[in-house]
Amino acid sequence: MSSRTVARFGPYPDCSAHRSVDANMQGRRGVPEAHPRLRVVRGSRSPVPQSVYLQSGSHAPIYNGSIAGDVNNFENNFQVRVYELDKDGLKLLYDHSAKGATHDSGERYPSPQCHPGTRQAAIGRISGWFGYVSVPKKKVMWVHAPAGYGKTAIAGTISKILEDQNLKFKPLGATFFFWRTSPQRNNPTRFIVTIAYQLAVAIPEFRREVKKAVEEDVSVLGKNSQCQLDALIVKPFKALGPMISIIPTRLVIIDGLDECINSEQESRLAKAYAQDQEEVQRQVLGLIHTLQSHHLPLCFLILSRPEPWIKKRIETWSEELVEVVDLYRVGDHMHDVEVYIRAHLSRIATEHDELVEDEEWPEEDIVQRFVNRTDGHMVYASTVIRHIDDPYHDPRERLKDILNLPSDPNPDLCTLYPFLLPLRALQAGHAVLP
Fold first, then answer.
1. Rounded CA gap, 258 and 292, in Å?
2. Which residues have C-beta within 8 Å of that of residue 280, sequence separation ≥ 6?
3. Bridge partner residues of 103 (DSSP)
4. How far apart are CA 358 and CA 349, in angstroms?
5. Does the pLDDT value for residue 386 go beyond 50?
């Protein structure tokens, strides 16, 4: 026997039970050791007590087997099925969820939120639609805008507002923030499990039923999204019977649907990959549509770019079901960006030693040029602020360099990054390719 033998058992990979045997146990034939978590079923589905024996000359421990004779003489049809018991269903849900996808996850810390005094029109529009207690007439809202208009920050702010409500129930049911570069957040594999876990935390009545469903059949955690939707959300709600009618409506926030790209298919040809990306986003919309069709106490806030296939799919839904909000047409984006820029430039002016004696900076002309350069793109403004807010460089010179770039009638990060990335590379000591 090797110095260490490890046996792994379990109904699914993420919840394997690990068994280790030290070298000092070699040769101690017939020494039993009780295991508190594993049960062996032999010819029966009923759990039986278990002991572990270390058999000399074998390559693994023997579970409830004879300790005499050669282990290779075991009957070929002797099947041992090992289950991991005593594991809470809610814990299993959590283990299989995308932990970084929630609004308050450590992976997203600090999570983007709207700067105070900005995006008030959009926040008011969403808050007016979802009234916490009363059920909205339209149970789905789709908020769309091009990149850079603060959709994720708005989703984070709405999440925080709902979380801070002093009510007898939690109006925020669940959140899922898709992200293109995150392995757990750029595909729908863990989407339903993550939503189900959060709903179980938010709704005590639902918690009992979904916990029971998982404990009765853990294999559901490895099934397709449609099966999970039915087993982990629809059936647990339906099991509540008449009680479901008195459960307050919860909001489920889904941000960055266009970031759901099914990254496991990236090795495919570009055209096939693009088609797969569109299909997987339509699949998520299909799951949402199926959920609302069961008349559950849930509403859905979806935020994404206005991709044609997303728009086309949502247009097939009834007008009585979905409210569409074009974020580009809501509020004064230039005003919001100006509030943000003035606040941060004032902060930088007081925190940087180079600017202590420069009481004139930032001059009004600089502020207006900066605001006009953004064309209302909040992400453009925030990227520039992060760039100039460097304790080792003069913010005045850095901002001046950016404002002196050739003007662009449609500014975005594609025009800004070619300027910023070489600077970052030089500061880090890396060569910059032309």
1. 21
2. 187, 188, 260, 261, 262
3. none
4. 8
5. yes
